Amino acid sequence: MINPFSILFRYLFLEMLPPFFINMAFFSFIFLMKQILDITDMIVNHNVGIGPVCLMLIYTMPYFLQYVIPMSVMMAVLLALLRMSSDNEIMALKAGGVSIYRLLPPVLAFSLVGTLLTGCMTIAGVPMGAHRFKTLLFEVATANLNVSLKERTFNDSFKDVMIYVNRIDPQSGHLQQVLIEDSRTGGATNTVVARTGELFGEPEKMLYQLRLFDGMISQVDPVKQSSYTIHFKTYDIRLDLKGAMSAVNISKKRIDEMMLKELRAYLQCQQKKGSGYRRALIKYHRKFSIPLACLAMGLLAVPLGIQNRHSKKSFGIGLGLFFFLFYYILLSVGTTMGENGYYPPVVGMWMPNAVLGGFAIFLLSRATREKSVDFFWFGTLISGVVRRLAKQ
């Protein structure tokens, strides 16, 4: 039995910690980069407090951490073993009679920790964060409706009212080139087009008023088969956010906001051949398949990291990034194909793990026989597989 407190176990385990945290910080920053513009816009142009913005960031973190943690685990194992290989430590271990398989216990233990952390994200963090983010965003929108109005985007926050704004002045908050479709007047539909507009009201009462300037109203009544157009200099539209809130229950959870127990109950209520059932089943299996990808990625990093010391580090790191991208593509394809019913959602969610695990075992057996793992060999392998498939 392997002693978990052996020198080799502790040495390798501790060697993987620094690159793990560095990669966590780096990849988290990459994921946050796309949100910086939105955050800046909310603080500078819409006067949203730093507190709510920080909470929004915290609520979105579990979503990208479910991908960042497995990738950081893989890169940590890779970098630790590549460092040991370049310093001839792997060669010294082999010369001392230490099998490559003796490196697996600390790697698997480290990957298991990553699995548990990722599981906390997928099972609890992601649904809780998504639900609280939606609730907080709604609260911010009620306090400052300009936050929910986006340029060149159709906004349907209000029941039976669609608002489109071509441009929002960041200084004054004035709306330019406004299009509104108002279906609140029975069977008739009012289409309002205005050159400019202003939004003001009473946020504490959830009552807003949109004042439009220099525009026209076109009403079409299919029941009476009539239509007319009116030009105006000033026109006010009342927007009742409280009524919209009662029409759309903010507390009602979407599939990605459901905990395991709620998701199981939802699956039992759905028809097994329906698209809603397939989407929910995919979300259910993703909560377990993504965490377990840490084990497959950690195991795969071992043969990539213990390659010959004369090989460039870029070979191992490049292959590591390639396999992670390959995993993400397989996961995305599996999600799409599973939702559309081309094959069972279970297959789509667990196939990426099986493929990466198979590659890990194959490359590990190749590494134990002192055969190199590089881009040239990998390209030859892929081309050979493609030729065999073409012949069949």
UniProtKB/TrEMBL annotation:
It is a multi-pass membrane protein. GO terms for cellular component: ATP-binding cassette (ABC) transporter complex. It holds the Pfam family LptF_LptG. The keyword DNA-binding does not apply. InterPro entries: LptF, LptG/LptF_permease. GO terms for biological process: lipopolysaccharide transport; transmembrane transport. Signal peptide: none annotated. Keywords: Cell membrane, Membrane, Transmembrane, Transmembrane helix. The chain crosses the membrane at residues 12-32, 64-82, 103-126, 288-306, 313-330, 342-364. It is found in: Cell membrane. This is LPS export ABC transporter permease LptF. The lineage of its organism: Bacteria, Pseudomonadati, Thermodesulfobacteriota, Desulfobacteria, Desulfobacterales.
